[in-house]
Design brief:
The complex is a heterodimer of chains A (95) and B (291). In chain A, helix 1 (38-49) packs across helix 3 (73-86). Chain A is of the alpha+beta class and 95 residues long. Chain A has one domain. Chain A has 3 helices and 6 strands. Chain A has a 3-stranded antiparallel sheet. In chain A, strands 2-3-4 form a 3-stranded antiparallel sheet. Chain A is globular and about 35 Å long. In chain A, strand 2 and strand 3 form a beta hairpin. With 291 residues, chain B is an alpha+beta fold. Chain B has 9 helices and 16 strands. Chain B has helices at residues 25-34, 61-64, 86-101, 130-138, 171-179, 204-208, 237-247, 251-268, 279-290; strands at residues 3-13, 16-24, 50-56, 67-72, 81-82, 106-115, 118-123, 143-146, 149-153, 158-160, 166-169, 189-192, 195-200, 214-224, 231-234, 270-276. In chain B, strand 9 (149-153) and strand 10 form a beta hairpin. The longest helix of chain B has 18 residues, at 251-268. The radius of gyration of chain B is 19 Å and the shape is globular. The chains are: A alpha+beta (95), B alpha+beta (291). The interface between A and B is medium-sized, with 13 and 16 residues.
């Protein structure tokens, strides 16, 4: 079993636009269109730019995105990644 | 409603032609009131996109309360309606036929009007005032491309005209009669699923330019609100695209190409929300938009 954190990315079958900090994305696998703002838009942009592990994303988020103090950054990122996975917007990128 | 031997009409509207067979005299008379003579084409000359019949209802019920059935290529996609609703039924049925079959376009449930060479797309949930606003604007200098279904051509993202009668409901009918006293209206039809409805003839100047497509300059989401001051404000393009995708009748048919088309449109067009109460205020706001 590998101890390297799996990296994930937005698959190439997803078309997307980044307008005024919001993302709108079309997933050719599912035929669904999605609209993301705030943390979800940041996370989508990050994973579309380069594959990343959840840990690497959490590290980057600490320096790049502000969230209200009441929100647990790590938990919010985990929930958003789960959402992306449910929407079939993630694929493994290898190590 | 009186019937007579079956009439066969051939009607051209925008890029489409339809044949209609019906024995309902009031329907034929209503269409001749709402469509200009040039819309009626020799039956033998046409290739028909839609073969429509508005036929009498069947069964014993027809003796108690005459009914009309909408048939598209011989199939009946709707339940029969009272025969006095044959005219709006024909118009609603054409909308159904276009939305179900005209996949060479991205068909969006929205009005489309043009001024100074650019089209404003007006999507609107029921009750948003889309048709009333459209009816007012086309009486004040805007060209009608469509009241109900905007046809977006994938090849160049332009809107293809479909200038047909405008559907008005309930209080909007008297409002528009007063606002546009020279406009031509159908008789009112009462007790429909939408309440009382009437159709307003498309302006002759719009019909005369029914082959001039135009690019989209603005997407405006209107909302009528009692006593509201007019407010036209920029809105999120991402949210606007989601709304248009939701309002597109055949977005799923176009798939990724449909998304790319809308993304291209939203990248270039302005996206706004518009709240209004009075039509004159709305006309002024739209004139400012097009200036």
């Amino acid at each position: 079993m590998s101890d390297i954190a799996p990296r994930q990315r937005i698959p190439s079958c997803v078309q997307w636009r980044d307008w005024d900090g919001e993302i709108v994305a079309y997933n050719d696998r599912t035929g669904d269109t999605h609209h993301f703002a705030d943390l979800a838009a940041w996370l989508f942009r990050k994973l579309a730019a380069a594959p990343a592990s959840a840990e690497a994303i959490a590290d980057a988020a600490a320096g790049e995105i502000e969230l209200p103090a009441r929100i647990d950054r790590g938990a919010a990122i985990a929930r958003t990644l789960e959402l992306f996975a449910r929407l079939d917007l993630l694929e493994p990128a290898g190590s | 409603m009186k019937t007579r031997p079956v009439s066969t009409l051939a009607l051209r509207f925008g890029p489409f032609a339809a044949s209609l067979e019906t024995p309902f005299a009031a329907l034929v008379d209503g269409l001749k009131r709402l469509y200009p003579p040039r819309s009626f084409i020799p039956a033998a000359d046409a290739f028909y996109d839609f073969r429509v019949a508005i036929a009498p209802g069947r069964g014993a019920h027809r003796w108690l309360k005459p009914q009309a059935r909408f048939l598209l290529d011989g199939e009946s996609p709707f339940k029969p309606l009272p025969a006095d609703q044959a005219l709006p039924m024909f118009e609603w049925g054409l909308n159904y036929a276009i939305a179900a079959q005209a996949h060479q376009y991205l068909v969006v449930h929205a009005a489309a009007i043009e001024r100074n060479g650019k089209v404003a797309i007006l999507p609107g949930a029921p009750g948003a005032g889309k048709s009333t606003l459209t009816a007012a604007l086309v009486q004040r200098g805007w060209r009608l491309l469509s009241d109900e279904l905007a046809l977006i051509r994938p090849q160049d993202a332009q809107v293809v005209p479909l200038a047909r009668p405008i559907n008005l409901k309930n209080g909007s009918i008297a409002l528009m009669r007063a606002y546009a006293p020279d406009a031509v209206f159908s008789a009112e039809t009462h007790d429909t699923a939408k309440g009382t409805v009437a159709l307003m003839r498309a302006p002759a100047s719009s019909i005369a330019r029914s082959e001039e497509a135009a690019p989209i300059g603005w997407i405006v989401f209107p909302r009528w609100q009692k006593d509201a001051a007019p407010r036209l404000e920029p809105w999120s393009r991402a949210a606007g695209l989601m709304e248009i995708a939701h309002n597109a009748m055949n977005y799923s048919v176009h798939g990724g190409a449909g998304f790319a088309l809308l993304a291209d449109i939203f990248a270039r067009a302005g996206c706004y929300r518009f709240v209004y109460c009075k039509l004159d205020h709305a006309v002024a706001a739209f004139a400012g938009l097009a200036a």
